[in-house]
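Table S2 (text version). Query chain:
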Amino acid sequence: VGQGYALEAAKAVVHYANAVLGLAKLAAITSPNNQRSHQLLHKLGFILEETLVLPGEERMTNLYGLTFNS
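Corresponding structure-token output:
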């Protein structure tokens, strides 16, 4: 079981994207079978938007989005 480093790092990225960069939305991609990444993104408020194959890739990829409140 992890020690929470990924969650803390991801929280810092989300905060920076919103507070410093002023982004309206943040995206993340993961492998569909990476359950721990899915759980991490869910904890941060990301929503699974689509499962797709990225250009030049052969495998499926999950695309998540997090929309910031104005």
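Notes on Table S2: The first helix runs from residue 5 to 20. The CA atoms of residues 25 and 67 lie 4 Å apart.
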